[in-house]
TrEMBL record:
<feature type="transmembrane region" description="Helical">
    <location>
        <begin position="203"/>
        <end position="226"/>
    </location>
</feature>
<dbReference type="GO" id="GO:0005794">
    <property type="term" value="C:Golgi apparatus"/>
</dbReference>
<feature type="region of interest" description="Disordered">
    <location>
        <begin position="386"/>
        <end position="406"/>
    </location>
</feature>
<feature type="transmembrane region" description="Helical">
    <location>
        <begin position="85"/>
        <end position="108"/>
    </location>
</feature>
<feature type="transmembrane region" description="Helical">
    <location>
        <begin position="361"/>
        <end position="380"/>
    </location>
</feature>
<dbReference type="Pfam" id="PF03151">
    <property type="entry name" value="TPT"/>
</dbReference>
<dbReference type="InterPro" id="IPR050186">
    <property type="entry name" value="TPT_transporter"/>
</dbReference>
<dbReference type="GO" id="GO:0015297">
    <property type="term" value="F:antiporter activity"/>
</dbReference>
<feature type="transmembrane region" description="Helical">
    <location>
        <begin position="159"/>
        <end position="182"/>
    </location>
</feature>
<dbReference type="InterPro" id="IPR004853">
    <property type="entry name" value="Sugar_P_trans_dom"/>
</dbReference>
<keyword id="KW-0812">Transmembrane</keyword>
<feature type="domain" description="Sugar phosphate transporter">
    <location>
        <begin position="91"/>
        <end position="379"/>
    </location>
</feature>
<keyword id="KW-1133">Transmembrane helix</keyword>
<feature type="transmembrane region" description="Helical">
    <location>
        <begin position="266"/>
        <end position="285"/>
    </location>
</feature>
<feature type="transmembrane region" description="Helical">
    <location>
        <begin position="232"/>
        <end position="254"/>
    </location>
</feature>
<feature type="transmembrane region" description="Helical">
    <location>
        <begin position="120"/>
        <end position="139"/>
    </location>
</feature>
<feature type="compositionally biased region" description="Low complexity">
    <location>
        <begin position="397"/>
        <end position="406"/>
    </location>
</feature>
Amino acid sequence: MASLAQRVSVPLGVTSRRPAVAPVALLGALPVRPSQVSVGSRLAVKPVAPVRARQTLVTKASAADAPKELDALETTVSKVVGAKLAPTVVTLSFITIWYALNIGFNLLNKTIFKYFPYPYTVSTIHVVVGLVYCVLVYAVGLKSWSFGRPVTKQEFKNIFGPAAMHAVGHVAANISFAAVAISLTHTVKTLEPAFNVVLSKVILGEATPLPVLLSLVPIMFGVALASAGELSFNWTGFLTAMASNLTFGFRAVWSKRAMTKSLDGTAVYAYTTLISVLICVPWALLAEGSTLVEGAKAAIANVGASRFYTDLFMVGMLYHLYNQFAFNTLERVSPVSHGVCNVVKRVAIIGSSVLFFNQTLTAQAMVGTVIALIGTWLYTEMSSKHKHKKAPPPPAAAGGASPAAA
C-alpha cells in the first residue's frame, strides 16, 4: 500500500477510501476510455496513446507538404524563377505558345486560301510537313520530341480510329475556312460539345446531367444567330464546319475507350500525323488532283514561287507545332482547364482575324458569337460540377487499352 501511495503522490488515508463516485465518472474529462479503468484496482489506469495519433497527423502533413518532383524543363526554369513557380511558369508558357502558333496558323491559312483555294491539298500539306518534321527530329536522336518509340500493332490499332477522325475533321474544317470567314467557322465549331454529348450517349452509354444539357442551349442559339447575321455565310462553309464537329466528336469519344497511356501527348500526336498522311494524300489526289497543277501555276503567277512554297511550308509547321503544344498543355492541366483555354483561344482567333482581314461583323453576328462563346464556357463549368453518368462496364476483354487524350 505504501508503494501505491508513492506512485500516485497522495496520502495513504486517501487511497484507502472508496471513491464517492465511480472512477469512470471521475476520469470523464481525461483522455481515457472506460475499458482502460479497473474499478476494483483503485485507479489503476492503463496507458493511453494520444501522442501516437498526433504523430500520425504530423506524418501526413509532412507528406502533403513534400515538394513536387520537377521534370527536366521545370528544373531548368526553376533556376530562374524558383522550384515553387517553375511548374506554373512552364504551363503558362505552353498556353501562350499554343495561342500564338494557333493564331498564326489561322491567319496564314486563310491568306493561302485567298490565292490557292485547294483545301484538300493544303490540309494534306499540313500533315505532310508535320510528318517530315517528326521523322527528322526522330532521326537526329530527339525521340521524345517525336514518336518516342515504335508502337505495337495493338497500340497502332488503338490510335488509328481517333487519328482517322482527326484527319477527316481537319479536312472538313479547312474546306470551311476556305469558304467562309474564320470567325464564322470558329463560332460554328463551338457546337462540338453538343456532338460529344450525343455520341457519348450513343456509343458509350453515358447519360449527360440536365444542367450540362441546358448549357448547350446558348451555344446553339448563339451559333444560329451568328450564322444568320454573317455576311460571308454559305452552306458549304457551314455544313463542313458541322461535319468537322461530328468527326472531332467521334475522335473525342473513341479516345476515351481506345487510346493508350504508355505514350505521351507528343508521341500520340506524331502517330496521329502519320495516320493522317495515309488518309489525306489519296483523298486530296482524288478530289483535286486533276486541277492541282493548273492551280499551283496560277498561285505562283499571283504571289511568286518563293512566297508560295514558303507559305505552304510555314503553315504546315505552324499547324503541327500548335497541335503538339495543345497536346502538351492538356497533359499539364485538367480537361476542364483545357476546355476553358479553348474558349479563350477561340476569342483570340476570332478577334485577331477580324482585325487582320479588316472583316466587317454585323451586330447580329457579333452578339451571336459572344453568346456562343459564353455558352461554351458555361458548358465547361457545368461539366466540371456535374459528372457524366457512365454506363455499366462491358465484360472485360483481352487486349483492352487504357484511354488517353487525342
